[in-house]
């Protein structure tokens, strides 16, 4: 019930309802200040909770402790929305540390986490991305703050055993061109992500420079296991050597090589509106959270 739930909504539920609830989604970025939609005391009543979706700033160390308790059924899915407005008004001081995540994973070995981050600074992401989070899906969306190559590299190192979905969106109006994650690096972070994260099945990119030869490398590394590769046409760039070869049409060669690598016909996304995640990120988070949790 987006924009309907208030901080007093859950306390009005009877114990019998709270005890049988298996999925709880509490998201509202419209509440100003420091109010939260759920407290740790309230969460203690939800002993059968298998799926939870919250604003990241509301998911505290104490909540992680409660969910790790033996009187709660193991949590299977946790979807967290990290929004710059929320981070500004609230705080990251109370978030779980790595030991809390370890305890939660011990209690719930099949727990998987989905994070969507809006305009979050790199220094805040470094605080958020604890090594023991069983992170399966992550989506970055930027209007002001771009993701750094160092963050992509960290994700590929820490979550190589879990990561299946990686979405990178940038809507920054910048006439100097899209940011290049491979700047001043021997290896492109997106190629390393495809190499390390062997379970990667969806990769979507808009608003970051993706070099054609790196796109071919990604397709070859993950092959037919990469079910979805969505890259907007305007994000793709060619190096001078590719453009200088008079005998080969670089665009045709890219389409051919990526299609061969994936084992299925591929082409760049021409119309930005057709990119499956782009039109309404909040609604996309809601849909993703539902599909993420539907089979448990």
UniProtKB/TrEMBL annotation:
GO terms for biological process: positive regulation of protein ubiquitination. Coiled coil: none annotated. Gene3D superfamilies: Ribonuclease Inhibitor. PANTHER family: F-BOX ONLY PROTEIN 33 (PTHR20933). This is F-box protein 33.
């Amino acid at each position: 019930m987006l924009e309907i739930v208030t901080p007093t909504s859950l306390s009005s539920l009877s114990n019998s309802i709270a005890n049988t609830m298996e999925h709880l989604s509490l998201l509202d970025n419209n509440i100003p200040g420091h109010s939260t939609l759920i407290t740790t005391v309230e969460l203690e009543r939800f002993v059968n909770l298998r799926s939870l979706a919250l604003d990241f700033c509301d998911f505290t160390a104490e909540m992680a402790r409660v969910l790790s308790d033996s009187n709660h059924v193991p949590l299977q899915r946790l979807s967290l929305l990290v929004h710059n407005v929320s981070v500004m008004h609230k705080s990251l001081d109370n978030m779980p540390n790595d030991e809390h995540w370890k305890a939660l994973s011990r209690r719930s070995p099949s727990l998987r986490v989905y994070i969507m981050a809006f305009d979050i600074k790199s220094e805040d992401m470094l605080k958020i991305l604890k090594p023991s989070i069983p992170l399966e899906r992550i989506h970055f969306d930027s209007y002001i703050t771009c993701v750094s190559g160092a963050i992509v590299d960290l994700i590929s190192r820490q979550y190589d055993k879990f990561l299946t979905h990686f979405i990178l969106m940038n809507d920054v109006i910048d006439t100097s061109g899209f940011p290049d994650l491979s700047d001043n690096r021997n290896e492109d972070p997106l190629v390393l992500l495809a190499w390390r994260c062997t379970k990667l099945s969806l990769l979507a990119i808009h608003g970051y420079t993706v070099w054609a030869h790196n796109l071919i490398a990604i397709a070859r590394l993950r092959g037919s296991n990469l079910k979805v590769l969505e890259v907007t046409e305007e994000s793709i760039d060619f190096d001078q050597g590719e453009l200088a070869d008079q005998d080969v049409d670089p665009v045709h060669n890219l389409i051919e090589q990526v299609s061969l690598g994936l084992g299925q016909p591929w082409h760049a996304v021409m119309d930005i509106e057709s990119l499956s995640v782009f039109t309404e990120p909040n609604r996309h988070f809601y849909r993703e959270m539902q599909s993420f949790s539907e089979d448990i």
